[in-house]
Specification:
30% strand, 5-stranded parallel beta sheet, alpha/beta, 176 residues, 6 helices, single chain, Rossmann fold, 3-stranded antiparallel beta sheet
Length: 176
């Protein structure tokens, strides 16, 4: 177990071994300005324990500039049956990971710090789902114009939501 600590982020990280790689998982996540203050991440699967999804396993790359969210999302989705092929914190790293790991899907944060996740999904050679803490209405037109399969709020992120979105994309155009 290691600790990453700076003014804006504190993450206690454990490494979980998967088939051929390791992904950090968070046991405690705090994001904020000064020590002692912060915002905790909540993702759908953290609210209730439950089994995985019965659908075909999906190999997924998660792209987000927040180490805390990467860790929490990887842990949640892996527990629910999604195979986490890897994680990336920026566009260049995501493109390298996609080339090397060949995931089935990428989950891409709309706001990657100084980069646009909306722009990145157009360069990825795999289907992508955009994710954000922002409301979908804030980006509705941009999401609709993007090649992304769709959008999931980070608070609704789960294996079943991913499978549902992939199933909807396979059966017809998404609603706007």
């Amino acid at each position: 177990m290691s600790t990453v600590d700076d003014v804006s982020t504190r993450v206690i990280v454990q490494t979980v071994e998967f088939d051929r790689f390791s992904v950090p998982t968070a046991s405690s996540v705090r994001v904020g300005g000064r020590p002692g203050l912060g915002t905790r991440f909540r993702v759908a699967g953290m609210r209730a324990a439950g089994g995985g999804c019965d659908a075909v396993p999906v190999r997924c790359l998660i792209v987000d500039d927040s180490p805390g969210f990467l860790a929490a999302a990887a842990r949640l989705l892996q527990r629910q049956g999604i195979i986490i092929a890897g994680v990336a914190s920026n566009g260049a790293e995501a493109l390298r990971q996609v080339e090397q790991l060949r995931p089935d899907l990428a989950l891409v944060d709309i706001d990657l710090g100084g980069e646009s996740g909306l722009e990145l999904v157009g360069r990825l050679p795999v289907p992508a789902i955009l994710i954000s803490t922002h409301d979908e209405q804030d980006y509705r037109d941009l999401i609709a114009a993007s090649p992304a399969v769709g959008f999931l709020p980070k608070t609704a992120l789960s294996a079943s939501a991913i499978h549902e979105m992939l199933g909807s994309a396979a059966t017809g155009p998404r609603e706007t």
